[in-house]
Structures are given as structure tokens and as C-alpha cells.
Amino acid sequence: MMGVMNNGNQTASSSSRTLEIEEIYIKPGVEVTEDTPLLKLSKESVESIRRLLAEDVASAQIVYEQAQTAEKKAKTEAEYEQTIQTFQTVVEEAQETLTEKEEELTEANEELAQDEALLAEQKKVLENAEYTEAGTDKRENLYWWIVAWETKESAREMVETLEEEIENLGENIATCEKEVTDASTQLSLAQKNLELGKIEAESQRALRSYNGENAQEIYDVAISQGEFELKKAREDYEEAKAKLEEFDTQIIEQIVYASGSGLVTDVYVAAGDTLTQNTDLISMNDYDEVTLMNIIGCMDICDEGEYYLEGQPVHAMQEKELGNIRNKEIGFIFQNYQLIPTYDILQNIMMPLIVRGMSTKEAEEKCMPVIEMLGIIHRLKHKPVELSGGQKQRVSIARALVGDPALLLADEPTGALDTGSGRDVLALFKQLHELGNTIVMITHDLNVAKSAERIVHIIDGCLTAE
Predict the structure, then answer these.
(1) Which overall architecture, per CATH, does domain 288-463 show?
(2) Which CATH class is domain 46-245?
(3) Is pTM beyond 0.85 here?
(4) How many Cβ atoms from other residues are within 10 Å of residue 391's Cβ?
(5) What ranges in 278-418 are assigned the alpha helix state H?
């Protein structure tokens, strides 16, 4: 299992020391590597925790500085007045710095809003130019085709430039926000130091009103206590700084990253949940099932043993032969569909046949029976972005079927779907199996696995009995 970091001083109230999840990036069945983004935390909760940790550091620093001060001799009246004036100057400078950083942040946000608006306009220009270019016959209307092409290239260049500027601005804003938080903490610290300086000066004035013997006795006691407290104060200060550094290391721009590699089997948190100390986030498996899937799908070869598909010795094949097997004998169905976004649905489905060398007309004729069976004939001219998750998976299944493969290999086919769409896909698999199709489905969802006639488990790299 992978847990969240220690989130700070446990003496504070639990409500003030929790992190709220804004978005989950991973699902069961997804492969992760070290530094893969797992989830995004709400900006407010991250800033709140960091502010509390920074205040812990500031408070510990004050105590530490007080302990250091207790070892020094009592200052004269003039020295205390000078110290107070110094503290006052630090407060004014901290206030100026905070105001400056807030202005920089405001300017950066305004510039970001302008660039985002301009980016939206340029994307529309790019979309229109691509549409015009695609719909213009180059031979009959060469001039307008060139105009559309030049407009498209210019818009694409502008979009790329703006996206880069927006990314840079995002980084700049994150830096500004951290600087504002740091400046606010420094101002708070300076104000506390000023207040403590005034209190200490007044205390010394009162102390000097005693006779010399009593004053020296009180001072000697303070020095003795200061020597005892100094070590502990320094340790508390170093611990507070370490917690803040750990927080900044583990959470970067609201994102929590994976600390290892593997295949996610369970996700224990959801958007809206709160994280406390040692909250479990996910559990992961190793890559045993991934390796098996790659071997079955002819994307990798086995180190030992033999693998025959339709009587062909896959284990002895070279890469070119494996490529032919993948194209002709295996139909792949992916969790995230893997559709080409710029192609319409018909073009996506025909792609394996085009790769085989079929003409567009032959490929379209061969695809139509499968398309009609899957009920997506009314969507053929749509782009993938215009389809629901269930419809995209039907397109993915159609693409896998048109080549008459010996095997359908489905990797978590319901993982990205809602419950209803997932049931529809499983019902379709059952129908395809009844028509004579062999289907190998990889899943971590036991309810999905129960829809199969046979279930084989992989435990510690070994296939177990059904």
C-alpha cells in the first residue's frame, strides 16, 4: 500500500491539519512508475497546511531566539530602543515585500487570463482552417487550399506559442503564490518579534526598578533556565523546519506522486476525501500480469517455454513476424480505447485493414457488417471526442473485430466506463463469444471477471488453478 505523508504537528486540531482531495488521476489497472501523478489536492487545503507548518517554524524560531537571548546579558535601555526600532524597520520592509509580491501575483493572473482568451480564439481559427483545408479540393481550388493551409500553420504556431507562454505563466504564478505565502509568514514573524521586543524592553525597565542585588538574582535564575531550554528549543526548531521541507518535497503544486512502480490494484480514496497522517492511497501489484499480456499480445517474447497461436510458433518469431501476427491474428481492446482523435469513426475502424494493404473501398465494405452488428453505423462520420465512453469502446471493439482475429485481447475493457456502459460491454463480449470469438480479458475487478466462463489468477508471477 502507498500512504500519504506525515502532515504536520499532531497537537493541532485534526480539522486544521487535513488535506482535501480535488481529483484522482489513477484507477485500478493503470500502470504507474515513480513520480507518476496520483492525485491532486485542493489548493486551499495545501496552502492551509503549508501556512500552519510555516507558522510552526516561525513560532519555534521565536522560542529558539528567546532561548538564545536568555543567555545574553541584559541590554541597556538604549540597546532595547534600538532593537525595537530595528524590529519596526523589519516589519515595514516585510509589509512592502508582501505588497510587491501580491501585485506581481495579480499581474501574472491577469496576463494568464488574457493569454487563455487569446488561445481559445486561436484554437477556433485553427479548427476552422483545418475544416476548410479538409473540405477544399486542392486541384480545383488551389488558391483557397493554400490560404487555408497557411492560416492553419500560422494558427498552430500561435497556439503552440501561447500554450508554452501559459505553461510558463502557470509556473510563475505558482512561484508568486509561494512567495506571497512566505512574505506573509515573514511579516507575521516580524510583527511577533516587534511585540516581543517591546515586552522585553518594558520588562527590563521594571527589572531595573529593583535594587541591584535583587535584579542580579532574578537575572541569574533566568540565565540558568535559558541554558536548559536552549537545546530543546533548537531541536524543536529544526524539527519544524524538517516537516515543512518534507511537505514541500512530497507535494509539488498540489500533486501527490507515486513513490514506486507497479500496477494499481485498488484505490482507497476518492475526490472530496480528506487525508490525514498515514492515510492509505492505493495498493499496487507487480508487472506479472502486464508481462503475460504483452507475451500473449506478441508485443514481447517469452524467455522460456513455447507459445503457439493458431498452430504458429510465436516464441520463435522475429519482430517482423510478430508484427504480422499482431495485425492479423490478434484484436486489441484497450481500457482507454486508443482511438486516433483526428480520424472519424469509420477511419479508426478501417485502420487495421488499411495497414494490411486493403483499398479504402474494400476496407469499408468489410467493416460494415461489424459496424451494423455493434450499432454504431449512425456515428461513422463523428470524431472520437464526440462519443461517450461506451460508444468509444464499441468503436475499439469494432476495430479489433474487422480483421477476423483468432484472439481478442482486452485490457481492463470496462475500467474507464461507468457501471451501465460497463455492463453493456460485458453483454457484448458474451454475444461475441457465443458467435465463436475467443476472448482473453485482463481485469482486477472480480465482478467483471465473473462474466467469463473461466477465471485464471496470477499470484507472485504464477498462474493458479481456476
Answers:
(1) 3-Layer(aba) Sandwich (3.40)
(2) mainly alpha
(3) no
(4) 20
(5) 288-296, 319-328, 345-356, 360-374, 389-401
